[in-house]
From TrEMBL:
PANTHER family: ASSIMILATORY NITRATE REDUCTASE CATALYTIC SUBUNIT (PTHR43742:SF2), TRIMETHYLAMINE-N-OXIDE REDUCTASE (PTHR43742). Keywords: Iron, Iron-sulfur, Metal-binding. This is Molybdopterin-dependent oxidoreductase. Residues 685-709 are annotated as: Disordered. Residues 3-59 form the 4Fe-4S Mo/W bis-MGD-type domain. It comes from Parasphingorhabdus cellanae. Belongs to the prokaryotic molybdopterin-containing oxidoreductase family. The lineage of its organism: Bacteria, Pseudomonadati, Pseudomonadota, Alphaproteobacteria, Sphingomonadales.
């Protein structure tokens, strides 16, 4: 038997690890990490190793589907679907105007950059600004904070250089975010061996908290106060970099006075941390010379995420933890433009007030986009501007959005719901059209997405000029009729007589990117996939076609780039980073005002906190028999003390009741979770009209949230972690097998 090894990019999450798939007689038989890959260095996770099988799961859609009058779905060719959907969109535009058509781009609308670029061009062609993404139900504080604080042009230090790291509500070893690179375990181990110190802020002893030098195992929802306390203490003890603050920032005095109330004693009360713990963390962070801070979903979903993300940047600026003149810049950018190599910061910019206003809750577009948490209301609220048609690209609103009950009403109220998805998701079940795409190994892959994420902040993207390209390694399933998403948008534009002007993703500056568009005129023939990538990466530092034609790029390679040093700030540079942005300080004043307000633990004694599992990615992989063996039920991790108080045994079904709804999960006793917290993964469960299935699909944590209470005024994100709940053992106990 002949074994052939094919190099490929995993596309099951944003990390884009370099993998090798072994084929025997043309059939894929095994996948493993590629130890020679310069970025992922042999790393793979179970999802990546299963991805070759994902293509042929029995649940894989081989045809697009059209909803019938009786509510069932019948197969339909994608070409017919494109013609029918575009007719319907045109009719809706004719009656209600272009803004009645919205798009929601979920995680797989990011993982497939060509799909996203064409979808955005389609929205521009129909003249609708109603573009929503998962960013505003993820870490929307990041965009707000970057704009309000300004961008340090040279960027932050990378993990090889760190002497310290502070992780706030993020668990990079599982999630692959937070700056530890593409092999987070290995990189963390190497950094610690070198002497790097780690501070973790998390109510749970997460994988990274196990390795922390200081773990602040706080109550959830107090991150802004904790970071404010650390910043205050650093200033009080004079640990900050006074020269950097003086030369490169504005707003120090305003910051200092806003931080005054955040004494260790005051912050101790709500956070549940001891004053000494907070002081020790401040002293440790204040001792670092080249460090990074990463806030994750935990810090963004539990209230005051903008303030937490802003303090992340403020702390780095207080300490001058940014790359300086003479430091090495190892990655000028390969497929995506890199940061300018100058030691200078831009000033504060408005993070809202420039874009589309929504009709509900005074919400509007911000630096993180339109507030997705308000999209259900925009669909349900009658009157001019009501959204009538929704295109869902690689997302699953029914299991991912907060306030599942309202989301369900909204999805049913639409005149047209179109989902691009390779399987019948809970949202697809409600769709008028389900467009079945080619996926992952059936298409060209590039590492552009991961490089694109450099714009998220320090530690994202690649530290070296790394690139990988892969050609399709699997045929589409026999008898299938599938398209790439961009082909569908191209076909719809054609049938509506619209030109598509595809804007590059390679250039982060919006105005610059607008000068790098590629025109696909109405009715033009479908471009080949390489031409499509050329358009999507137009203006990239290294031309896409050159990289594509480089055989070495197939395995993943470092490009030859001249060594480059960060240059001094230009003499006429007037801008400075802003550590005292008034709107952010106002949010901090509100956080300060809460310090003395006792949390209500009477009605709702517990808090649901979100977490990720290594085997599952959001709502994906539940259909994989192998994964389900590893994670047989929807787990609720509970501290033994709470288990005892509630009379719960491991494997019991627990009812979790918030002010909004009740869901059921299976308990796992976990001393790692702070008592009073319940650590539950999201994107499980069924639709609200389905029977509970506690041992199967589990519960949906989105159902526990109201989207219109405790929401962020800028991004609309409501509480999606730190959700107040009460718990009880379910009276009807199905027999649960103990989880492995
Ligand atoms: N295996 C796997 N990888 C993934 C995903 C997945 O589903 N599975 N999802 C992907 C996506 S979409 C994203 S956005 C990233 C997210 O990446 P991360 O933000 O790193 O997500 P988590 O791993 O859930 O880590 C969040 C941590 O926050 C803690 N936490 C919860 N509430 C609070 C709080 O109020 N304060 C603090 N300080 N901590 C809190 C939780 O205990 C948890 O350890 O991961 C991505 N990667
Ligand atoms: N309570 C709570 N809620 C949360 C979170 C939380 O931590 N707690 N996390 C939030 C976060 S960070 C995020 S990002 C959102 C996730 O929000 P979404 O992106 O809306 O949800 P996913 O489950 O990732 O949906 C991805 C969909 O893409 C489909 N898909 C897979 N591969 C492909 C492909 O190649 N092409 C196409 N077209 N589709 C594909 C999958 O079948 C799936 O239905 O959820 C948010 N919701
Ligand atoms: S971490 Fe992400 S990219 Fe890497 S193997 Fe796992 S799913 Fe694939
Ligand atoms: Mo996310």
């Amino acid at each position: 038997m002949e074994t052939e090894r094919k190099h490929v990019i995993c596309r099951a999450c944003h990390a884009q690890c370099g993998l090798i798939v072994d084929f025997e007689d043309g059939v894929p038989v095994a996948t493993h990490g590629d130890k020679d890959n310069p970025a992922s260095a042999g790393y793979s996770c179970i999802k990546g190793r299963e991805l070759m099988n994902y293509h042929s799961f029995p649940t894989r859609l081989k045809h697009s589907l059209e909803r019938q009058p009786d509510g069932s779905h019948a197969p339909c060719s994608w070409n017919d679907a494109a013609a029918k959907v575009s007719d319907k969109i045109q009719a809706i535009i004719d009656e209600h105007g272009p803004e009645s058509v919205a798009i929601y781009i979920g995680t797989f609308g990011f993982n497939t950059l060509t799909a996203q670029a064409f979808a955005l061009a389609f929205m521009e062609a129909i003249n609708s600004p109603m573009i929503f993404t998962s960013v505003t139900i993820d870490q929307p504080g990041k965009g707000i904070a970057w704009f309000q604080h300004g961008f340090w042009q040279a960027g932050a230090y990378r993990h090889e250089e760190w002497d310290g790291l502070m992780l706030v509500g993020t668990n990079p070893v599982v999630s692959m975010q937070g700056g530890l690179g593409m092999n987070p375990n290995k990189n963390l181990h190497a950094a610690k061996k070198r002497g790097m110190k780690l501070i973790v802020i998390d109510p749970r002893v997460s994988d990274v908290a196990k390795k922390a030098d200081i773990h602040l195992q706080c109550r959830p929802g107090e991150d802004a106060a904790i970071l404010a306390c650390i910043a205050r203490q650093i200033i009080e003890e004079d640990l900050h970099d006074k020269a950097f603050v003086e030369e490169e920032t504005v707003g120090f005095e305003e910051l200092k006075s806003t931080l005054a109330p955040f004494t260790p004693e005051a912050v101790s009360k709500r956070s549940g941390l001891k004053p000494e713990e907070l002081i020790a963390a401040a002293r440790m962070y204040g001792s670092f010379k080249k460090a990074d801070i990463a806030c994750g979903t935990g810090a963004n979903m539990s209230g005051y995420g903008n303030a937490a993300e802003y303090l992340n940047k403020v702390l780095m600026s207080l300490m001058g933890h940014w790359k300086r003149e003479g430091d090495l810049r190892r990655n000028p950018g390969v497929l995506i433009e890199g940061f300018p190599p100058i030691a200078a910061g831009t000033g504060s910019e408005p993070a809202w007030g420039f874009g589309k206003k929504l009709r509900v809750r005074d919400l509007e577009e911000s630096a993180s986009g339109l507030p997705t948490a308000a999209l259900a209301d925009e669909i349900l609220t009658p009157g001019e501007g009501q959204i009538k048609a929704l295109i869902v690209l690689g997302g699953n609103p029914m299991l991912a959005w907060p306030d599942q009950i309202k989301t369900f009403e909204a999805m049913k109220a639409l005149d047209l719901l179109v989902c691009f998805d390779p399987r019948m998701s809970k949202t697809c079940e409600l769709a008028d059209y389900v467009i079945a795409p080619k996926i992952h190994y059936e298409t060209i892959g590039t590492t552009a997405l991961n490089e694109f994420l450099t714009s998220f902040g320090g530690g994202w993207g690649y530290e070296e000029p790394y690139v990988q390209i892969c050609d399709p390694i699997l045929d589409t399933p026999p008898g299938s009729d599938l398209c790439e998403e961009h082909e569908f948008f191209h076909a719809m534009a054609g049938s509506m007589g619209l030109d598509l002007n595809v804007k590059t993703k390679a250039i982060l500056d919006h105005d610059q990117a607008a000068n790098h568009k590629t025109l696909f005129p109405a009715g033009s023939p479908l471009p080949d996939p390489v031409t499509v990538w050329d358009a999507v990466l137009k203006g990239s530092p290294m031309p896409f076609r050159e990289v594509y034609n480089d055989p070495e790029a197939r395995k993943g390679r470092l490009m030859d780039c001249p060594e480059e040093r960060i240059q001094a700030k230009p003499a006429d540079w007037a801008e400075r980073l802003c550590i005292g942005a008034p709107a952010m300080l106002e949010e901090l004043d509100e956080v300060a005002a809460r310090l003395d307000v006792k949390q209500d633990f009477e009605t709702y004694p517990y808090r649901v906190i979100s977490r990720r599992l290594s085997d599952i990615h959001n709502s994906n992989w539940h259909e994989d028999p192998l994964q389900r063996k590893r994670v047989p039920h929807h787990p609720a991790f509970i501290n033994p003390k709470d288990m005892n108080d509630l009379g719960l045994a491991p494997g019991d079904v627990v009812e979790i009741e918030s002010a909004r709804a009740t869901i059921k999960c299976v308990t796992i006793e976990s001393p790692e979770v702070r008592a009073g917290c319940l650590s539950v993964p999201h994107a499980w469960g069924g639709n609200p009209d389905e029977d509970d299935d506690p041992l199967g699909a589990g519960g949906n944590t989105g159902r526990l949230s109201f989207n219109d209470r405790d929401f962020d005024r800028r991004t609309g994100i409501p509480l999606m972690s730190a959700i107040p709940v009460r718990l009880r053992r379910a009276s009807n106990q199905p027999v649960a097998e103990a989880a492995e």
